[in-house]
Amino acid sequence: MAADTPQRPLPTPIDRTQPFWDGLRERQVRIQYSPSSGKWVFYPRSHAPLTLADDLEWRDISGEGTLYTYTIARRPTAPDFAGDEPQIIAVVELDEGPRLTSTLVNVNEGEIEVGMRVRPVFEDVPETETTLLRYEPAP
Amino acid sequence: MGLRGEAAIVGIAEWKPERRPTAPPMFTLEQWSQLTREALDDAGIDPSEVDGICCTNIRESDSFVPSTIAEYMGMQVNFAEVVDLGGASCAAMVWRAAAAIELGLCNVVVIGAPSWPSPRPPVAPSGPSSWRYGASSANYGSPQAEFDIPYGNVAQNCGYAQIAMKYGAEYGYDPEALAKIAVDQRVSANHNPSAVFHNVPITIEDVLNSPMISDPIHMLEIVMPCVGGAAIVVAGKDVARRSKHRPAWISGFGERVLHKTPTYAEDMLSTALIPAADQAFDMAGRSREEVDLISVYDCYTITVLMTIEDAGFCPRGEGQPFVREHDLSFMGDFPCNTHGGQLGFGQAGLAGGMSHITEGARQVMRRGEDHQVPDADVAFITGNGGLMSEQVALILEGD
């Protein structure tokens, strides 16, 4: 294989994060919660941020949230994404509080507004075990 | 608490940034030697007096970096520091050097930012380049590798554009005001023969008509990658007094580090500079009104806008009218990045961040030549690493 053949980078889950990726495969957004601090956590960690409590547990959530910000990359952000432009790269704020990186799909550029409601779109990557979490405008 | 202002920048070496190198590649260790020699010559200090080095990574070794450099240059040092704060590294090295000198650990510290291409090995190393995704780590177990890179959130343009978009949603977005930052700095670049865009004027229309790279950021609002290199010498009071030039005393600093990826910022619009700048001014005992020029990290125009606000030169959210109302060139009423900034001078890797320090020091040393701010005594400098999340503020002063 030529070293410069574009190939989309995929996540390599670790034991700690596997429940999140398993959830996406099951069409479910599942993130961590720390009962002692009463805070939701994303991305998955070994200890709760700031308190460093080791009481993180997995809970299912709706996955819905608001668009915190975004950009439309007119040039590929890395050679591996050649052909994907324009990439609508979003930061979604989950209703539970944490934010995550995603991309917006099923949307026209003119309709995108910071603060708009968004909902999950589960995208199975062909020929892999990976499901990515994309977002689209919520009706 | 803090510095007493008894260490100063006394010597500068800076290679003219070039878009394509006109000289052969050089190993990082060779660049260290050459830059150190030039900076010491500039100060009038003998190499035998060096007893401290501050560095970042070098191509020749992934670890044991200071000892590798010290051995190569034949120096024995009391202070050997590696700093890993991206574009804030050079500013972070300046205060570390000053602090080490004031603690009495050392007396003459060389800070190096070699950014010239290195020769390629005859046989290419196996495996993907660690810089395939810019500053985003694709290593196994890296949160970015798992949760950011697969969605294309890599390198710098994307994150800064997201910050700019958020800024616009919060305060309104004035593309002409942002463009004016690049235009005013280009005026200064046009008076600086070392700038990569020397004698290449631009207008606000040029900026707004340049290709949109990542909404809302246009091509001419992004630094031009270059090759180059720089080094400075920081020395204690006695050495500074017998050096060749008017010393640029390091009187205050602040440093704040928050996160790697802006997605996980507590507040994307509250940069790490706010506490860092306050600390620097408090330590120096200076007010914003006493500053003669600012020399602040400008990887993008939005970086400058938010820096002007978060350093306290105008209230948050009012940077755009502030920029419209002031002339940011070296001739103006609010001189900002008088060497042209990295937007006009060029970003030669780490030396790009160093250029804000060399320019602040030159102005205070009164060595600004065609772009000298008259009677410059107090310079405010920033280094910015990651995505507005690693911030260092410095204050330099003349006698």
How would you sum up this structure in a few lines?
Chain A is mostly beta strands and 139 residues long. Chain A contains one helix and eight strands. With 399 residues, chain B is α/β, with parallel strands linked by helices.
Summarize the helices and strands and which ones pair or pack.
The complex is a heterodimer of chains A (139) and B (399).
Chain A: H1 18-25, E1 29-34, E2 39-41, E3 57-61, E4 65-73, E5 87-94, E6 99-103, E7 117-124, E8 131-137
Antiparallel strand pairs in A: 1-2, 1-3, 4-5, 4-7, 5-6, 7-8
Chain B: E1 7-18, H1 28-43, E2 52-55, H2 65-73, E3 79-82, H3 89-102, E4 108-115, H4 143-147, H5 157-171, H6 175-189, H7 204-209, E5 212-214, E6 217-218, E7 227-236, H8 237-241, E8 248-257, H9 273-284, E9 293-295, H10 301-310, H11 319-325, H12 341-345, H13 350-365, E10 378-385, E11 390-397
Parallel strand pairs in B: 2-3, 2-4, 9-10
Antiparallel strand pairs in B: 1-7, 1-8, 4-7, 5-6, 8-11, 10-11
Mean pLDDT of chain B: 96
* Dominant shape of chain B: globular
Number of E strands of chain A: 8
Proportion of residues in β-strands of chain B = 15-25%
Enumerate how many helices of chain B there are, as a single number: 13
Quaternary arrangement of the chains shown?
heterodimer
Q: What is the CATH C-level name of chain B?
A: Alpha Beta
Secondary-structure element sequence of chain B?
EHEHEHEHHHHEEEHEHEHHHHEE
Radius of gyration of chain A: 16 Å
Largest sheet of chain A: 5 strands, antiparallel
The tally of beta strands of chain B, per DSSP, is 11
- Please give the largest β-sheet of chain B: 9 strands, mixed
Helical amount of chain B: 25-40%
Q: Uncertain runs of chain B with pLDDT below 50, 5 residues or more? A: none
How are the strands of the biggest sheet of chain A laid out side by side? 6-5-4-7-8
The CATH architecture assignment of chain B turns out to be 3-Layer(aba) Sandwich
Largest interface: A-B, 36 and 40 residues
